[in-house]
Amino acid sequence: MNPVLNSSSIPSPIPSKSNDENIQKTILLSNEDFSSIDLESTQNHVQRFVLTKRLRHWRSEHREFLAEFIGTFALVLLIDGVSAEQTLLNAKSWLTSSIGSGLAVLTGICLSGHVSGGHLNPAVTLAFWLFSGFPTHKIATYVIAQISGAFTAAAVLYSVILPAINQFDGGVRQVEGKFATAGIFATYSPHYVGTWTAIGSEILGTAMLLLIIMSSGHPNNIPFCTSQGFVVGLGVMILCLSLGYTSGFSLNPARDLGPRIFTSIAGWGVDVFTVHNYYALIPIFTPFLGAIVGGLVFSVFVDQ
Fold this sequence. Notes:
- The protein is mainly α.
- Helices cover 71% and strands 0% of the residues.
- Helix 3 (94-116) runs antiparallel to helix 7 (228-243), helix 5 packs across helix 8 and helix 6 runs antiparallel to helix 7.
């Protein structure tokens, strides 16, 4: 018969000193790990907070620059995109080009108008400075944003349509001729249009554009002042349809200069500036004269 074991008779285990030390070390290491994790997490949160705060501060200081840059980027990207479609597919239509230009202007104003006023055009900025009290210290910021936005738009579009351009011109960049592609990005007048005709076209067109912009923005001009973006877009559309075929119709120095600079370094060379007896000077400078004329006419004869 087996003896009944009494629990009191079972020897209790003798605690080991080394085990206690190991347990204490494990607890200490765990606490240190948790402390290090908490510290790293806190540091990461602080760094993200500081970075976010700096970005917000930078954005608040440069909101108008960014708005003009993005608005002009969209404007030029879409206008040149329409031009690329017509050139590379041999489907030229002045009606399509005019509608596309008007909608591109509308898009640019929609993106930037609530922040910067949606100038998107150095000639417009100049006219607003002369006749509407636009601050002098903002002129350089707006103009740089507009030209750089136009340049970037041309570069982005070029990277997208490069295979189509190579297919069309065989990889040989041309400013004039049957396979010319420089006109996708900047404006060039037909050969039958003389210098003074092109100058007159740009001055008249830009003057009419400024009349439309200033008139539609007047607070008493209801209902047009409440939908100025649409009015300006439609104005650009009708101006292109009626007057634009004589000079290619820039009306906007940034829209022409930015892409023209890009094409000069992207394979088309300095011919983009020298062709047609330095025609590039006309769309770059004459819109300023047109803007002054339009602003003067509005201020003297229309504004109250």
